Amino acid sequence: MSLILFLINWLATAGYYALLAIGFSLLFGVARMANFAHTSLYMLTGFLVYTFSLILGYGLILSSVLAICSVVIVAIGFYVMVLNRVKEQPLAVMMVTFALALLIQETLLTFFQASLRGMEPFFDGYFEIFGVRVSFQHVFTIFASAAVIIGLILLLSKTKLGKAIRAVSQDAEMANVMGVNVGRILLITTGISAALAGIAAIVILPLFSIEPYMWLTPLTVIIAAVVLGGLGSIKGSIFGALILSFAEVLVITFIPQGGFLRGVASMLALVAVLIFRPEGLFGITFEEERI
Amino acid sequence: MKKFLLNNYYFFKLNILEIPWRMIIFTGIIFLAFIPLFIDDYIIRILTFACLFAIFAASWDILGGFMGQLNMGHAAFFGVAAYASAICNVNLGLPPYITIFIGALCSVVTGLIVCLPALRLRGFYLALVTLAFPVVLNGLIMLFPNITGGEMGISGLVKLLPTAIGNYYLVFIIMLISVFVMWKFTDTQSRFIRAGVIMRAIREDEIAARTSGINSTQYKVFAFAMSAFFAGLSGAIYAHLIRVAGPSTLTLTLSFNPILWSIFGGISTIYGPVIGVFILHPLVELLRLNVIGEEIRVIVQALVLILVLLFMPMGLTTWIRDHIEVICLRCKAINIFTRMKCRICGANLHLEKSQKKHYRFSNKSGIEHHNNKEIVV
Q: Are residues B306 and A106, on separate chains, in Cβ contact within 8 Å?
């Protein structure tokens, strides 16, 4: 009985981390940019959906589409105006995206204050398996995140665009020589990554409540998941998300006062893996670049 | 006596007065030493915290700037020292000047523990793993509320000194000494301490440095310990200044602030982060003083950071230094940009103004940006 609950919780949490982690990992793998604003784009989508659906009164699906579009526009605009000029310096990229995250947080604070708000769920109600109540929203979260991940993998492996993205992620200069428009691919990847953050928000946020500081907690966890799986590897980030969410849900379910330990559990899992495999589970060790 | 004074004067003139950048820093120190006599207590408190964070930011610069070990969890050192000194002070009743050192030493131990994974990782992996340490510590603090006070933290620490001005001068002097020590240890032109050059060599190319017989592990451990010591020093003093050690000393924002200040001021120059703190911290705190609102200050900080990175990618101080200093081509002495001739050897500084000839720059060193570039000499 508690096993089923554990399983459902684990899969829902894993879907949540995996959706966010592959967006981060995609942008890092292709453009070598660590985007610290990734989870704040996710938070921004949540607030936009909240505004469109509950304040302006549009339908839920229409407001979701509008929110994803506006988040993609924000990300691409920021990429063109700022990131594009500093993308050669990794530290500058981290700090600029962190500044964007702070900007989004403070803007949301001015409009919404630091209070908890709930989002409207797509599906109401629950069903019972072996006496355990499972809400439809949890099941929807699990299946939707699996569908999005499979869609992304198909996009990357089957289409021409996906081939170009993989080429740029392996060797940008050579891809450029072969006729791939690297600048445009980076722009499209930024857009896809932002859209993934948006979809994650729409799929997951009805399970939680939204508030302007909520981007910090998932940020460290998804970074841990990405590092655990190996930087830039989509498969790795999915496995990283599965492992970390397993550790977290295990600690929360079976240890009293485990809620405080959820960060500790995932971080210890991360450090333990990295001590034995410094490049992550599925990471590729690049030949060290010499100048 | 007269000769001694003259010698000192010449030393001062050659090493400080004639070098514009050092002259600016000297003026700044004089300004900071006398300003608290004319302003009220609130602003003195802001400046005290600026001095404190200057140590913190400079200690990040040793690791991140000179050593190239991007530490994104610098707040771990700060928080450990704050909690250690608070526990020693409140529970054991030790006086502040002992607890501060105990805090700094605890922080060094933390630094050595962080070293264990850090020595195996590099680049992004290191940056993202160090991000984890404050999170782990935060969880541990929440888990043992009877020792650490949980959410509320440990309060009731002993004051350093009774007055605000006294605190300011104490922290200011500690700041001057520790920043000087850090600068001396990382100075690449020092004749006695080779650590600066070696750390830079390891950052630029670790394999080449190891091939030249440098024990890079030893220097990494040394850099971690030194950085952790000074970060811990600032953390312990911070706990005594606000008289509370709480979970706010382990936040992500506190980890990112030293990076932000360092990038703003100019990375891998110890004085850059210090100047960054003295510009950004009072600016942000004075914005809080006005009625504009809490949120505006973070927005201003973020916008200033983005603008500085866009227009001065190497940081404010490096940008200014490049514009006001000219290095003599013949004897490598530093001159102010208004001089026409070098102050040491008398060579022309602004060659393009005096002789207009075209030379083709032959690229022997193999540096790619000068490749076949025609320059006017």
A: no
